Amino acid sequence: MVKKRKSEPQLLSSVQNALRILKSFSTFDTSKKVSDLAESLGLAKSTVSRLLATLASEGFVVKNDKSGKYSLGLSVLTLGGVLTNNLEIYKEAGPVLSKLVNDTGETSHLAIMDGLDTIYIHKEECNHPVRILTHIGRRNPSYCTSSGKVLLAFDENGAVEKVIEQGLEAHTENSVTDPDELREHLASIRENGYAISTEELREGIKSVAAPIRDHTGKVVSAITVVGPLQRMTPNKIPDIAKKVMAAGKDASERMGYDERYFKRMRG
Q: Which residues belong to any copy of the IclR-ED domain (predicted)?
C-alpha cells in the first residue's frame, strides 16, 4: 500500500504579500507610495492598494494624506515590544548594558543572529554629544560588524560557509572580502574571546564585542560597544575589550551559564 504524502501547507499569497510590504520598509526607506511598492515587489497597484488599506485598518501602516505615502504604524511597534519583552536575553542583559555604558562611556548594544544577518535588539546610549547613529531592528551583514563576527565565530550551524557562499561584499575598503582571511579572523576571535571591527561597515566607526552564552553554553547573543575612531583609540581598546568581555560574562551568568561547570566537563 502506497503511503500518501502529507500535503504541503497551503500558503495564502495575500498574507505573504502583506508581510512583504511590511518587510520592505527600513530605517533608510521609511515611507513609500503605492507605485513604489508595486514596482519593487512585482505586484499590481490595485493589489498593493487593497493590502495597504487592510494593513492601515489594523494600524500596521499609516498614510500621509499630503504625500500619499505609507509608513509603518504603531501596531508594528506593539508587536515588537511583545517580542523583546519575551526574549530572556533582552530582560537579563538590560542592566549589563547600562553598566557597560557607564564603564566605557560609549553606546552599548545587544545583538542576535537572524538568518545570516545581525540585528540589534537592545541599545543603551552614551552621554557624549557626538553619538553613533544606530537603529534597533536594523539588519547588518554579520562579517562586517564586531557583534556579527562574534556570532559567526561561535556558530554551530554552518553559518560561516553560508555567508561566504552568499558573497563577501565590500562595504568599505576595510571590509573582509577574502574567505580564508575571514576564517582566520574568526578563529582568532574564538581564541581571544572578543572581536573588533574598525571601519568595516561604516567609515569612522569602531566597535568591540564579546559573546553571551545561555545555560547550555551556547552563544546566543553578542554584547558590543560602538564609538567613533577619535574616541575608540588603539590605546583604549585593550581596556574596552576587557570590560566588554566582563559584561558578556555577567550577562551569561544571568542566563544561567556556569563557566566552572563547563570547564570541569571539558577537563
A: 75-257
Q: pLDDT digit string (tens) for 206-248? A: 999 999 998 888 898 999 999 999 999 999 999 999 999 999 9
pTM score above 0.85 = no
Cα separation, 23 vs 75, whole angstroms = 14
Identify whether residues 70 and 127 lie together within a single domain: no
122 closest CA partner among 109, 133, 131, 113: 109
Cell of 164: 561566504
Which CATH number does the domain housing residue 63 bear? Answer: 1.10.10.10
Q: How far apart are CA 228 and CA 27, in angstroms?
A: 21
Domain count for the chain, please give it. Answer: 2
Are the CB atoms for 206 and 199 separated by under 8 Å? yes
Express each pLDDT in 50-80 by its tens digit.
998 888 888 888 888 888 898 888 667 656 6
The grid cell for 193 is: 574571546
Alpha-carbon gap, residue 26 to 35, rounded angstroms: 17
